[in-house]
Amino acid sequence: MTLSGDQYEISAGPYTAVVTEQGAGLRALTCDDRPLILSHGPDEPPPAAAGQLLAPWPNRIDHGRYSFDGEDHALPINERELDNAIHGLVRFASWRVAGHERDRVSLTHRLLGYSGYPFRLDLTVEYALDAGGGLTVRQSARNAGSRVAPYGHGAHPYLTLGRPLDECELLVTAERYLETDLRSIPVGGLRDVAGTPHDFRAPRRLGGTAINHPYTALVRDGDGRAWVRLSDGERAVSLWAGAGHPWLEIYTRDDVTDETRRTGLGAEPMTCPPNSFVTGVDLIALRPGEETSGVWGVIAG
After folding, report:
1. Residues 235, 256: Cα–Cα separation, whole Å
2. Would you say residue 167 lies in a domain?
3. Would 181 be classed as within a structural domain?
4. Which side of the chain, N or C, has fewer Cβ within a 10 Å radius?
């Protein structure tokens, strides 16, 4: 038995993916045997949250403290160096497989009352591969409790072309980004990307630009998808954010100290920005019996 539990492989055409029992994480994704995301071994903890699902909040909550529906809550601090609660409560939990076919797998997790989060959710994720369309992921949550619950979700894949980010071109179809402080907590509000180093609305070489910011005001295509595209002139990999994801966290891994530093681009679809449990920005108030979902995907090219 591996540290990340059972491994669920799916495939379609040139695509293969591996999803883990631990956290229902996306451990690997390839096209024609070339990695599209940074992967890791089944006995290795996901480095820097690689491939993990983030719920019931993505990103960070300042000092782990928030108020909701007239009550104050304090979450365990799991980013001790910055004194934040980070990336939710389910990324290391065991998820149960609900269905597994050649080209798709779905997993579920029941989140019961937790210190600082006294709510009950039924979570579901489905990963599906298509020979022409790549990977599609649908994340869903249903409030299975008796109280209105604060909720948000995200995912944490790292797009890669197997070469340094400095040599790649980046496209991010977003018109605004959120300023954050040294603890990655939003400060100063939204900024237009125009005229800043964070403007990637037209593809351009990333070079040494360091990014660790949430983007929004996403520009969507006719199918309602916003895009992040990494290319090197020969190959490309793209992440799209569909319905339910008005935010994209872009992260160039500059604070990673191992050999993977700046070899993968964090492209994280999110329902809300960092610290939304405190600010209320795009926070979902999920009523008992209600369900919410969001869809995103990754494709070669």
Report:
1. 25
2. yes
3. yes
4. N
Question: Token pair 């990655």 is at which residue?
Answer: 184
The domain that holds 67 is classified in CATH as 2.70.98.10
Q: What predicted TM-score, i.e. pTM, was given to this entire model?
A: 0.97
Structure tokens at 66: 């928030």
Using one digit for the tens of pLDDT, what is the confidence trace for 75-97?
999 999 999 999 999 999 999 99
How many angstroms separate the CA atoms of 178 and 159, rounded? 21
Structure tokens at 87: 């990336």
**What integer pLDDT is reported at residue 212 of this predicted model?**
95
How many domains are there within the chain? 1
220: in domain: yes
Side by side, which strands form the sheet with 204-205? 96-101, 104-111, 121-130, 134-143, 291-300, 236-241, 226-231, 169-172, 204-205
- Please give the pLDDT value at position 253: 79
Which of the residues in the chain have pLDDT under 70?
Answer: 257, 259
Residue 68 to residue 119: CA distance in whole angstroms: 11
Structural domain range at position 163: 7-300
